[in-house]
Amino acid sequence: MNVILPKGCGNIDYEAGLTRVLDRVEAFNPEAIVVSFGIDTYIDDPFAEFKITTDGYNMIGGLLGRRNKNVQRWIVVQEGGYLVEKLGLNCVTFLDALKSALEI
Fold first, then answer.
1. What pLDDT score was predicted for residue 65?
2. What DSSP character marks residue 51?
3. Which segments within 21-104 are labelled E, that is strand?
4. Radius of gyration from C-alpha coordinates of the chain
5. How far apart are CA 97 and CA 66, in angstroms?
6. pLDDT band for position 84 (50/70/90)?
7. How far, in Å, CA of 15 to CA of 21, rounded?
8. Distance between CA 34 and CA 4 in Å, rounded?
9. Which residues touch 46 (CB under 8 Å, ≥6 apart)?
10. What pLDDT, in 10s, does the model give residues 5-60?
11. Under a CB-based contact definition with an 8 Å cutoff, are residues 46 and 83 in contact?
């Protein structure tokens, strides 16, 4: 499911868009979730049109996990994210928040 968010979107706007998506995901009650995790949304990414911070990736991972605790199968595919020193930190931050929220 894609949601169009405005250029320059930061953590707050992203959370609002993600919440709308998760409302629909919960209603569908999926057996599995595939996350296309693009870190090119990071504020310092040279190709970014969004302004997500490291704290934002923590929020995203936590929100995904808290809202989908009943889902047993998860696939996270990392794509996008370029020439950024904090690429690894952002990825680990997201995955740690997801894992913690899922209590695994």
1. 96
2. B
3. 32-38, 73-79
4. 13
5. 10
6. confident
7. 10
8. 19
9. 82, 83, 84
10. 999 999 999 999 999 999 999 999 999 999 999 999 999 999 989 999 999 999 99
11. yes
Contact call for residues 50 and 5 (beta carbons, < 8 A): yes
36: number of CA atoms within 13 Å, CB side? 5
Interatomic CA distance for residues 44 and 34, integer angstroms:
26
Residues of 50-71 as b/e, b for ≥16 C-beta within 10 angstroms? Answer: bbbbbebbbbbbbbbbebbeeb
Using DSSP's 3-state secondary structure scheme, residue 14 falls into: helix
SS3 assignment, position 16 = helix
